[in-house]
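Researcher: Please generate the 3D structure of the following complex. Treat every line as part of one assembly.
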Amino acid sequence: MPKSISKLLVANRGEIALRVIRTAQEMGIATVAVYAEQDRHSPYVAMADEAYLLSGDTYADTYLNEDLLIEIVRRSGADAVHPGYGFLSEVASFAHKVEDVGALWVGPSVRALNELGDKISARRVALYAKVPPVPGISHSLGDMRVLLDFAHTHGYPLMLKRTDGGGGRGITLVRTDDELRGFYLNHNAVQGGDLDEYFVERFIDHGRHIETQCGRDTHGNFTVYSTRDCSVQRRNQKLIEEAPAPFVPNDVHDQLVEYSRRLFEAVQYVGLGTCEFMVTNTGKAYFLEVNPRLQVEHTVSEQVCGLDLVREQLVIASGKTLTVPSAPRGHSFELRITSEDPQKNLTPSAGTIERIVWPSGPGIRVDCAVVQGDTISPKFDSMMGKLIVSAQDRATAIARVRRALRELVIEGIPTPVDVYSQVFQDDEFTAEHGMRYSVDTKWFERNYLNKQASSAIGGQPASVAGQREPHETSASFVIEINNRRVQLTIPSDVAARFSSRNQSHGSARPTQPLRGQGMHHVQTSKHDNERSGVIAAPMQALVTRILVEEGQSVEKGDLLVVLESMKMENYVYAPVHGTVTNIAVCPATGVEAGETMLVIDVEHTHNSEGEQA
Amino acid sequence: MSSVSTLGQTATQAQPIRPAIAQAARLARDAEHHARDRQHIKGKLTARERLDLLLDTDTFEEIGRFSGGNIAQGNAGAAVITGFGQVYGRTIAVYAQDFSVRGGTLGVAEGRKICHLMDQAIALKVPVVALIDSGGARIQEGVAALTQYGKIFRKTCEASGFIPQLSLILGPCAGGAVYCPALTDIIIMTRENSHMFVTGPDVIKSATGESISMDDLGGGTVHNSVSGAAHYLGVDEADAIDYARTILAYLPSNAQESAPRYAYSATRADREIARRLATVVPDNERQPYDVLDVIRCVVDYGEFVQIHELFACSAVVGFACIDGRPVGVVANQPAVNAGGLDVDSSEKIARFVRLCDAFNLPIITLVDTPGYKPGAQQEHAGIIRRGAKVIYAYANAQVPLITCILRKAYGGAYIVMGSKSIGADLNYAWPSSQIAVLGAAGAVSIIHRKDLQRARDAGKEVAQVRAQYIAQYEESTVNANLSMETGQIDAMIDPEQTRETLVAGLHLLESKHRRAGLEKHHGNQPL
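Model: Done. Output below.
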């Protein structure tokens, strides 16, 4: 039965949280954001109707803290939870907890999450639905002989994947018996090995990564919003995605749609999801996995199907009928803008965004959550934003991407933009000048990442070793000659001579390199306590005594609770004058750091002005 | 510009390449291909890829590419790459052991290359970074290989304190080889594939019967959190190398220079952040707080690069900038064991203070300690001998020393943590400071022992009398006034003033000079 959503909690951060909040606002649904300390001033927090702090330093304490999030669902009165992608989006236990508190889970059911969640059971589902997975061993490994037998039956190369991997982590490629033995020895139990957490698959050479963006509602209606090609990858992580998947024969397309329908029906899937396939150059499609969530690259499907997929998620979750899209219109590319250095084989690097200018104009969409001055740390997330470019057909879209990349300026941090420019000039990718489109999942690594270390040319004449190109050491100025605008480029040493007089005042000092560990917005829990009256445990400890009762009036500085941790007593005092309204703990129980112990109703000593700011 | 290159081409016909030269180039190329095959499968980078990550783009100048090799016989050279490059625009010397060449083992050729590089680094007065990934001494070369370690040890000691020396353990480092990094200033390890031990699991198994995995014996996690041998645990190689680059950014190239000064312009946000200091430290002396919050409110951009982050956590040490000047920060951590000093945190502080003093970094000390950690375990672990190292380090430090007392400063621990009496230049205290020989409760038990006994005999409520004495003692003694009167504290400052006070103090002490000491060979520091 249809159930309307009136208040939506977004259990995520950054660009995707912003994405969900935008749609909710358009639909007139109130939004609740959650944020960790470092995100306090993020745009998505400001944009939500309400926002709650998740105190703690690590993701485990904050965005992955299921109980704390459930507590906020209760406190805020949200009647639905959107998990975004990553974090808790595929965690069945969290979905379960959300349903337990009576809120709507915007995502597939707990059953579907369980059956599709890990790759081994997903393969089982595929076999049951008569969708062929890539040849492999579905059950966990353990015996070297089984591995060798498999290798000799299906041939090398093989991919060894961790069952809980994803996003490029935990995948090892082996090409020979020796490498397989090496892998076996490295992961065998002698070293506290984790071999039984791996499964093996035949590696498809020259395969394309094509996926279908699917939706299925509670009434059993199924649709494919669009196909996508995500073959431009590095280290199994997507860089450039496009919709619809180009150069796919009709019969292959129809087969992918049919496979997707069978997979969704096999687990009674309700919601939006993606079926990923590996398609060989002979047109054979193998099932890879189902992603039971919205994906980073959902944007390109939105561009070509003309629908808002987050809206679709909310519509389906509230029990209504999904919108059947018309045939895909036009073509769309998504470029992930990450802080990765193309000079160093796209190794993630840290830095501060000194200047950022996104392109604009027709057909351009930018989904991002960073601003100038932000420090990017690969420890958290190296993706700064997504550039989505659409046009009426692929060739026009390619031309538009070239234009957009010329407009894009990011300074202070390395980005793969230069490599993208090369890719969009590469005839193998663009299929221009009579070339056939010949991109597969290893194409990008083969052509753009397989760079030999530049230090490998030491000790040899440049003419033999080649490679090292002279540095661009020039500066450009705009001048007018006879009122005609001219760009003048001169060697930088000459340029320095002109401008040196202006630079003498210490401006030549370099800037401090930042690792992004700093927190600009340190705020103490004490300060928070004072404002909200929520008394949280300062550490993980055992409650030994509670000295107040509900309804009792306390003065600032009164002892409230005694905790014991590391054989040291720790006392928690009232930070403000007020009345104890709720005590959430009892003696002899353990509390986690940040857990709410009791709540004080702060009396009129504080005026409520400015508290919402 | 194109006109320049065309000029060069038209001048003469390009010289022909001799086949022998082409052969060498082919060898070099094959060696790197081989290295990639060998290393990537293990989830490791090749030595040259690591150099690319460490150095600014295209700044590597290799020394002795083919040295120790035999080009005609297809041997491209020794199992170590040596050379110079730049990190954030400043020159460093670097050697990288290449595991794909004979397991990265050290023989005569490798030892000579490394020693030669270190000689040059000393002559040029630039830091040395070692990227270590080696199976140890080359057994085939026997004792001749071992003696090379002795030479490297001696060179490392010679360079110690003159140029910064960093070691990254990116593979195995076992046996006597561990002392190459052990003698350097900073050791960086990674979560996986990084091991250091003097005797390996096999030897231990056969000698004592104890069975232990490589990771549990000498992995990155163990050495960072338990033994304290390593100073940073990288998530992966790229992170470890990035940390090394960061550390170099705070250090001068050698002991005769000062650290680079960075541009910093104060913003309005700074004042806002400084204001937060007013609420960071709880009034209640028993309530812990995270001293990192204080440090981040005081330093530029809130950026504090910790050293030994996972070891002896009751003290924190690390680098930061204040108004663009790199400084070393030492602080007690009240959130861990109340910030008490123990054997490990004493050594952590002592070593860091020595590092800063060697390389002209001013030291900012933030004090909140209840004293030394009590217990037989600590006494027997050598708190006398090892605690003395902190005193030796501070008392001998000649760089600018500024100390600020945040809350508790009790007893001997107060005196060793950069007090004025031990040689600090400027000492400040926050108004909430409690400076005393010991806490009120303990003091009352001693001072008023007889009075309390008398009260007990008179049948009075002892607890009440005791409380009275405690209040009296706190009123009269446990505050900073006595220290102010004796000149041990220069000024009381509001927490919000801390940053500006430190900026002014650092500016004032900029011209502090080292004084020549007594005529002696060297001190005999507790080791």
